Amino acid sequence: MRGKICEAGSSALCEWNDVDFDDRSACVVEYSRQLMDQVRRESCGKDVFCREGTWQVSALIGAVAKGEIEGDEGALIRELLGLISENAGCDMSSYAAAHCLVLMDQYSEEWDRHLRRRRCTNLICKPSYTLYIAPELCNGCENCIRVCPLRAIAGEKGFIHIIDTGICDKCGKCIEVCPKGAVKKSSVAGFPPKVPAEPVPVGSFGEVDVGDGAIRRRRRRRE
After folding, report:
1. Are 92 and 12 in contact (CB under 8 A)?
2. Shared-domain flag, residues 19 and 76
3. pTM listed for this prediction
4. CB under 8 Å to 76, separation ≥6 — which residues?
5. pLDDT in tens, 139-149
6. Rounded Cα distance, 65 and 30, in Å
7. Can you tell me whether residue 21 is helix, strand or coil?
8. Element (H or E) spanning 103, and its range?
9. How far, in Å, CA of 5 to CA of 24, rounded?
10. Residue 117 has what pLDDT?
């Protein structure tokens, strides 16, 4: 489905027209958060629904995207969106809220996945994934190390870099500067990716073997 919200007569919302939720790069919950946040900032603010209602629902949807609230809050979000759509003093707030309600119905499984399990199918919302550096792609350029604001990446020139997921806040700066596309997302619901336990020379990386209840790590020699 593609959103159509310019009927509200606001040019400020026309940029939302071409979002395709079947595309792996989009998330209906994050879309709804961004939409209501823009409405909060740009609506008339003349009545409580445009002023307080849009702020509250934007904050609640944001908490869903961050995995900070439980499933029962979905009913409250629906109630607030319904009140805004029926009572807001401007078309922009009213139509955007109604649009989000439709999306909650059409993508109820994805909303439920966020609310009940803190999972995002397309790995857009941060609680649903961790970042790692694919050892077979990393060229040891240090670009990601230089831009990481939390110093969450270990390594040096010519060595495969490693992200400390306990420190990383998933800001995405490492993804932007990696020339090899080596920084990847890994679902927290799946098996963890195979990465070296510590930086090793580019061209060699650890393989994890599981046998007899023990985990043995081998390193390929660099050819």
Report:
1. yes
2. yes
3. 0.74
4. 60
5. 999 999 999 99
6. 6
7. coil
8. helix 91-106
9. 21
10. 87
Instruction: Residue 83: give its domain's CATH number.
Output: 1.20.1440.230
Range of the structural domain that residue 80 is part of: 10-117
Q: Are residues 21 and 104 in the same domain?
A: yes
Q: What's the chain's average pLDDT?
A: 82
DSSP characters over 29-49: HHHHHHHHHHHHHHS---SHI
Query: pLDDT-based confidence at 150, cuts 50/70/90?
Result: very high
Into how many domains does the chain fold? Answer: 2
At 171, phi and psi to the nearest 5?
Answer: -70, -25
Same domain (yes/no): 61, 112: yes
pLDDT tens by residue, 59-94:
999 999 998 876 678 999 999 999 999 998 888 888
Beta-carbon contacts of residue 158 (< 8 Å; ≥ 6 apart) = 140, 201, 202
**pLDDT of 124:** 92
Q: Which of 42, 106, 54, 104 is nearest to 80 (CA)?
A: 54
Burial class (CB in 10 A: 0-12, 13-18, 19+), 109: exposed
Contact 27, 125 (CB under 8 A): yes
pLDDT at 6 over 60: no
Q: Alpha-carbon distance 32 to 65, whole Å?
A: 10
Q: Tell me if 157 is assigned to some domain.
A: yes
- Residue 108, SS3 per DSSP: helix
Domain termination residue (choose one: 117, 148, 181): 117
CATH number for the domain that contains residue 139: 3.30.70.20
